[in-house]
Design brief:
ODC_N (chains A, B); 35% helix; NAD(P)-bd_dom_sf (chains A, B); Rossmann fold; Ornithine cyclodeaminase (chains A, B); homodimer; ornithine cyclodeaminase, domain 1; alpha/beta; 2 domains; 12 helices; 7-stranded mixed beta sheet; 24% strand; 8-stranded parallel beta sheet; 17 strands
Amino acid sequence: MTDALAPSALAMVPFVSVDDMLKLVNAIGPARMMAEIADYIEADFKRWEQFDKTPRVAAHSDEGVIELMPTSDGETYGFKYVNGHPANMARGFQTVTAFGVLARVDNGYPVLLSEMTILTALRTAATSAMAAGHLAPKDAKTMAMIGNGAQCEFQALAFREVLGIETVRLFDIDGAATEKAARNLADSGLRVVSCATPEEAVTSAEIITTCTADKQYATILTDNMVGTGVHINAIGGDCPGKTELHRDILLRSDIFVEYPPQTRIEGEIQQLDADHPVTELWRVVVGQQTGRASADQITLFDSVGFATEDFSALRYVRDQLEGQGCYQLLDMLADPDDPRDLFGMVMRAAG
Amino acid sequence: MTDALAPSALAMVPFVSVDDMLKLVNAIGPARMMAEIADYIEADFKRWEQFDKTPRVAAHSDEGVIELMPTSDGETYGFKYVNGHPANMARGFQTVTAFGVLARVDNGYPVLLSEMTILTALRTAATSAMAAGHLAPKDAKTMAMIGNGAQCEFQALAFREVLGIETVRLFDIDGAATEKAARNLADSGLRVVSCATPEEAVTSAEIITTCTADKQYATILTDNMVGTGVHINAIGGDCPGKTELHRDILLRSDIFVEYPPQTRIEGEIQQLDADHPVTELWRVVVGQQTGRASADQITLFDSVGFATEDFSALRYVRDQLEGQGCYQLLDMLADPDDPRDLFGMVMRAAG
């Protein structure tokens, strides 16, 4: 996208609809697409210091939260709109829906609008898998999945593709969710074990992923369920007042986070003192700090989701547009012949 | 929009494109539409305390700024994406482009996506006119317009419609801009006087509107140009480092602002001490404080644009959708039959 393009072309913004995204995911394959997005996310973690970073801008209500997550690498600006409404599922709505935008920093013009409900599911699992590549025990083969909602299968597939996980052990307080996930993963190449209790699910698992949706302080994992050497991938503790792990687990773990100012408010570590030591994941990715240092260490990725991950996922989608053709052009930017003559544009449209 | 709608209908978001907006503006008529938007803006200023208010979230670069402006009244959430790139005009781009979203607070689902380049022009002029209704001299008939760029004709028409202004006196350092504005306003019912100097433009004007686009501290008005009893509608001083009025004018004026925490950073009053007294416009609108108190008072509306004004404008557009039909439905929200089964939706799309 260069200035050589006529302004009238810049007035049109490529839009990736839900239907387009479904086509894109299936054209590439969900597992491969998550692995490729994980590479984009890792590449952006490697240039972490280039990004404008800010905690998300959240509007909380009794029912849930609506958030804007902006960031910029100085050349491209991106933001995501995302809601989180735990009560939605019971009413037939998605807990999380999202869309996102990329724009040029030099002139402020949007260059991509994309659905991000599906893309957020992909990037969340891609982020988890990328982080686990640095933190989980080498040659981990079994992952426990506590919480078998919308994110579950994406996590399972991403961990298979990126880490070589062979077995997933599913548990959900709602057996129907477990059945759904097991059905969807039946032909995934993973061995799927449906479990009756969380204790059963974590048995023999080197990686424990928690991904439940209650908006409250919950204890999905108790201290005695977490053995030495395990990597915990904690996804569901992602807003103030919402956590999944017993505090004692945190105290035994080495904790890795995306962006401390946001995670202190939203993550599992909201249960800890504000100065409790944590390691920024990007420092591990660039090699400044150690990820997993020993076989009996408990590593915890306290993931809340950060704006750069959405940025990376949107960058990935933008890079697929030309090859895959999964988009339409939206007439989103007013583009008069003379930029000062916006009113003339209105008058001429009257014919 | 109620929960009785099937979720599949909620997956579709009404989108008002630039073309749709042009049709809408011309169907209603730009002057009438600005007067109606002014009523919506005033209605929302009257319930100011219901709104979540926050300074906009700005990403500054050498070339300009990209901003997100969110707000919520507890029932509906809205935000605007807007850029401001003063160098754009010389490159053939709009200085300001924008789009906006309304969403339901109770479930987080977007209910409107709209272009806002044109809508921002309308709401900015509507806000100015609404404020002037409370602050300008009664029976003002003449307005000086310093800066004849994209906002100029909208201001002139809104002031004609809402306040009964009969004459506009135009000045711009670029005579071509003045010619453009005069041409566009030729059949507007306004008497249009093109002036060679700013001093000539302000002669006999009861209202002075400044609306220039330089991203710097500028002195569009000097102290000796502003006589007693005038209302100044200062639009262009709207980001850090960008002002239009000499500081001495501010010291002689009673200053009215939208949202002090934002205006202190972005408005003309960034030139003043942080505790310089200002009046919040909403307090005048609800009658808590006096607007214009005497005939020789200089009133200054130090307008930077606030999120509630965009919210009001989006509310207005949403209320026109059904009657005017100026929208298309975008497939923006993933909506699986079972909200937990997002992955199943991806699989089924593969066919």
